[in-house]
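Service request form, structural biology core

Requester: graduate student, group of Dr. S.
Request type: structure prediction, single chain
Budget code: on file
Notes: please return the result as structure tokens.

Sequence provided:
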Amino acid sequence: MPFRLWLVCGLGLSLLLNSCGTPVQKPNLPPSETDLVLLKSTTLCISKSDFLKTHPASTLKLQGWGTGQEFVLTADRSSSHGDESYFFDEDSLLVGTVFTFPSGLDLNPFPVLRRTLTMLKPVLEFYLNVAKLPSKTGMNSSALYETGDEKTTTQYLVLGTREQPVLLQASVTIDPYVRLFSPYRREFLDRLRHPSSQKPVQPLDNQGAEDKEPFVSLQQFARGQTAQLSYCGPQNYDIAAAAYQKAITSGFTNKVWQAEVHHKLGLAWEGKGEHEKAKAEMLLSLTIRPNTPEILNNLGTVYTKLGDKANALASFEKAVTLRPNYAIARYNLAEAFEPTNPKRALSEYETYLALVEGIPDEAGRITVVQQRVKALRR
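Core staff response, request fulfilled:
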């Protein structure tokens, strides 16, 4: 999954940032079967207007969430008997949900979910003082589990032993927003530690993750990914470009984020056919974080579309020099060489085929390359 808490947030960031055109494939998905259905009357990516048809505004508490909104259905009104929070982005799409059970939800009636949890390895374990639980129970060890499918992530914060688990919190979100929906975020832990806006008796300042980047920057980056990678409907490069520009305006302090938001904006401009703008953003990205193979490969594609064959070739060559097993860059390099250097093109195509052997997602391109190899060998 793309998020492993702040304990390994660098890895999570790198996995998130390396997706450059299509959603990251998850061929080995973790166990996710459950008989606890949290999203009973709605689905992720539903519009706010459709959501309000089944959840009357009079039953909800509305509060701000960065550039979006959070609707809260309190436990006394919800079918789950927990506090249900529904988060909409500024495009009025449901991108994430959080279910909070301050008194705990006994998981004994849910054998399928209990079995799934036994097959998952906790991504984090810690002691948590929960205000509404008995003191002896409230300081039991809690564990955070993470699972999901190709486009969504579900996280469970569970208290107690594997034999007698109690659910404290769960979140369900589309993947671009996953770092904003961990139950280990301090703002969500606080909903357990002192619900109903109660002040904590003894602050636990060292517990709970906090953003190291401006929230709006992270939120807009996720919004851009959602639109660019078709998480909620067809690709929308207009929204993606607007979101990345807002993220840039809000700002990042980390150079990886700084470089990648310009890179992703460049990809959005490329998708809109604005190739000069795409080139400018990718070059700016490389000034911040030089020698990044993904950016060089995508810059090479932009140069190709601009008719700048020399710079395209140079970009692809540098990408494979930095990462010799970079299959798609090998393919692009072979295509660039084919008109002028068939022998080198043949070599690069053969290298590509060796790198992607047995990868189902590359089946279509493999067929094309095999035909080209036959033609070049004649």
